[in-house]
Fold:
Amino acid sequence: MFRWYIEESRAINVFAANKLRKRSDFMAPSGSRRSSSCPNVQLEEAVEYVQNVKDTLRLMNDEGAFQKFLKIMDGFKKGQLDITDVIVRVKSIFSHYPHLILGFRRFLPESTQFLISVAAAPAA
Structure:
């Protein structure tokens, strides 16, 4: 249980760092009322999303997918993966969890959001 907490904290840190790292790459969806000058709102969204990922995967007894998610986020943070690689890999590991795929979409640059659509996520 303690290990899971540490991994969750790491995921939040990695995910939030990627989310907040570069404003021009990570924007709120168009039409959103989120302020780009308010990082706390975006951090809260990242924390909520990672918690949703954790809860879903724990409920489905699929903690291996969470480890893969951590590796993907870590690879992106280190510059080993570009955003397209991240999208392809996240879609693959969350293929049975369309709500996680669509939730991930809100953290993507607008120019890549078309890569994740409702049609791309299979029905559960």
Summary: The domain at 2-19+38-120 is CATH 1.20.1160.11 (Paired amphipathic helix 2 (pah2 repeat)). Residues 23 and 36 are 7 Å apart (CA to CA).
